[in-house]
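Page 37, continued from 36.
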């Protein structure tokens, strides 16, 4: 029983940063209604930014958020404004322009290969004050780095929900996500809203990067691993749903942690896909999704 409880604890901690990674992706889709295939690469950029901040300055990874968060926000804001906005303007009557998928896939390959050219293919790891440290609660182990990740996920999700619900910009984002044409008629600049939403999604990817580096390797294709998981989590929880992204992340984390006690990682991944397909068969909109004309 102790082994199962410890596995559940590990799954919750792992699922928290899975959910945080998926949170940025679901915000982008929920507002702009486009699939960002470069989301994992943005996470990789955030990890490298945090890694070099820690290596060059000796800062704590969470102190690196001071630089990484605005850097990734501006990067995402510019990416949307320069590459994606012209497509949306050229296809105003198309709800989900497929060209955006091609563009973001191109960004994915460009960012990953640029990182490979600049930093090389080797895996990097950084030692921090919380790397390898644990917190004991009775007989159960809580790795400090992952526990801080859980706290960071809760704080970030709370701030995002507060921002969307109580700020003028947040209400503009919600309005544009519900009906972009009606929002435009009410004086909302939908493309500025899209830039901000994409910036927030990239910013959250940067936060995940700072959360991961105390215990996760940094390498140019690390984003691919999280890209696949994020898409599964977002669809599992419900497209555009913030609670769905967090719940989906926890579900995937619990499955991986629990079933890995009894089978190999290959079979564990299979279980994740089986649960994913089963949920979609029962609830095509996802756990927290709503039927709507996206």
């Amino acid at each position: 029983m102790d082994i199962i409880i410890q596995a559940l604890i590990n799954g919750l901690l792992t699922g928290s940063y899975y959910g945080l990674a998926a949170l940025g992706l679901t915000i982008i889709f929920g507002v702009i209604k486009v699939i960002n295939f470069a989301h994992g690469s943005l996470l990789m950029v955030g990890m490298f930014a945090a890694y070099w901040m820690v290596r060059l300055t000796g800062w704590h990874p969470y102190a690196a958020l001071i630089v990484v968060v605005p850097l990734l926000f501006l990067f995402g804001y510019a990416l949307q404004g320069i590459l994606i906005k012209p497509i949306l303007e050229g296809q105003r009557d198309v709800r989900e322009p497929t060209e955006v998928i091609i563009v973001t896939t191109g960004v994915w390959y460009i960012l990953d290969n640029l990182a490979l050219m600049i930093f090389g293919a080797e895996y990097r790891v950084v030692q921090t004050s919380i790397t390898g440290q644990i917190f004991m609660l009775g007989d159960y182990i809580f790795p400090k780095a992952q526990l801080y990740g859980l706290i960071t996920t809760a704080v970030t999700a709370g701030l995002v929900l507060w921002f969307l619900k109580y700020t003028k910009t947040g209400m503009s984002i919600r309005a544009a996500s519900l009906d972009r044409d009606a929002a435009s008629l009410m004086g909302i600049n939908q493309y500025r809203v899209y830039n901000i939403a994409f910036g927030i999604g990239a910013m959250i990817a940067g936060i995940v990067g700072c959360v991961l580096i105390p215990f996760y390797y940094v390498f140019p294709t690390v984003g691919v691993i999280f890209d696949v998981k994020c898409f599964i989590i977002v669809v599992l929880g419900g497209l555009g749903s913030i609670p769905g992204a967090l719940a989906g992340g926890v579900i995937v984390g619990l499955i991986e942690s629990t079933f890995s006690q009894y089978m190999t990682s290959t079979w564990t991944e299979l279980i994740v896909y089986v649960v994913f397909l089963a949920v979609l068969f029962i609830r095509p909109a996802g756990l927290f999704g709503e039927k709507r004309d996206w």
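The chain has one domain: 2-223. Flag for discussion at group meeting. The radius of gyration is 19 Å.
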